[in-house]
Structures are given as structure tokens and as C-alpha cells.
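Appendix B, record 7
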Amino acid sequence: MRDDAPFGVVVNPSSALGRGARVATLVLAEFERAGLHAIEITGEDAADCQSRVRAAAQRGLRGLVLVGGDGLIGLILQLPEARALPIGVVPAGSGNDFARQFDLPHSPAAAVARVLDAEDAPLSVDLGVVSRPGATEHWFAGGLSIGLDAAVNRRANAIRLPLGPFRYHLALVVEILILRARRFTVRIRGTEHSTMGILSTVMNTRAIGGGIRLAPRASVHDGMLDLVEVSNGSKLRLLSVLGLLARAKHEHLPEVTITRAEHIRIDAGDEIAYSDGERVGTGPFEVRVAPGALTLLA
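C-alpha cells (predicted):
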């Protein structure tokens, strides 16, 4: 894209109950201070925002800068026109797990400076892609949650107080109190297994739920996804497992299996999956990695 094309600063006004809109104003001011043209792109709702991003990309953009959290990233990644552009992120949401993977700065001045510094040498970042019967492909940056972590995500989204990552911690406490096992049937490299467990989640990045390192060794540059499975057990034992999981000390527990693969199929019945903080739907889920599909300005 030509250098005189504008940056598109995409903002979700509801990110962290309005913080996204406030941060976007500062981001636009930083681009102006740098002598660069940038335009704000927002919308009345998710579909309107996507439509406006698509139209701006077709007119010509130098890149996109997303001001918000994981949900905004997931929303914009569904657009082929957006994935074709270099993308920067200014974390202004509640969880910011994708931004945490790259230690992206929250300061608008530092964030814009990092975006501009990265233009000459952007990062090639893997993404995940989910296929479901009768549905369009769904792209994700962080992970596809099925089971306990999806239930936590759903409950956290319903909490409208400005609590930041604490929303996820509060939701986790509630879900632990009503903890139940689900049946997961997983196929990897032609081998299938079926187990009762509390989650079966596919990770591209390390963290989920506002900083919980579910896949501590996950890399966004290896062309692989990390499947994290936690099998069922007594409630007392699972409380211990979840406590260790919250501190990223769960990798060697007998209840935990982490498998690295390029393609994973998961059937979890009527369980509703979430990715990047937003609802995906029910499966079965065919999940694959798209190596280097995102050009990240970081």
C-alpha cells in the first residue's frame, strides 16, 4: 500500500465500558503528531463496524490499528480485506490476551511508536481457523475455548462492571462452584479418543481469560496449535488442578494433556465454543492453523 494512504484506527466504543473510545482519540492525536494521516473507523454495532472497515480497506489503507481488546481483534479478523493489511493493536479491552503475547504497550504514544517502528520489519503471526457444519469459517488469534473456559467467558461477558481482568476471575469462581464434566471426542492425526473432562481448548497464544497461561509454551510462529485437555476427577482434585493451572504449573499433571498439532477435530455435543472472547457456536469443530496469516505491526 502506498505511504500516503491513511491508517485506519478501528475502535470498539464499548471496549472496557468506553475506554476504547477515549484511547482512540489519543491514538489519532499521536498519528497527527507524527505527521501521518489516520482515520477513525467505528460503527453502531459489530456488523456496522465490519462494513466500515471493509469499505475503508477497499478505498485504500496503509494499515489497521485496532484499539480495543481480544473481541475487537476477533471481529476484524473475520474480514479478508483486513487480514490482507498489516495490523497493529493498542490494548484497551478487559482481557488483552493477544496483546499480552507480544508485550504490547498500553500507552497510546508508545503503541503508535511501536506500530511505526515495525512497518519495515513486521511479524508474521499464525492464526487459527474453525470450520463448522453450515457455518462460514471463523478465524481466531488467541484460542478456541470449549468447556469450562468457554463458560467462564460467557459469564464474564455478562458482567458489565468495569473490573478489567477481574471479571474473568470472578466468573471462574462462580463456574467452579457449579463445575461439571463434559464429553469430548477428539481426533488428531487420524487417531481418535473420547473422554469426560472439563475443557478441551485449542490455543494459538499462551494466555486466556485475562492472563491465565493455559498453554505456557504456545508459539504464534511455529505453524502449530496447542490442544489443552483437562480430564475429569473429584471436585476436590479438580480444584487443586485449576489452582495450579491458574499459576501455569499444570503441564505435568496427570489430568492435563497438551498436544501440538496443525489440525484438530473436536466434537463436544451441544457445548458452545468461544474464541477471542466472543461466541462461536456449537460443533463439531474442525480447527486448523493458518501459518503466518497475520502481518502484525509489533
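Remarks on this record: DSSP finds nine helices and 15 strands in the chain. The longest strand covers residues 191-203.
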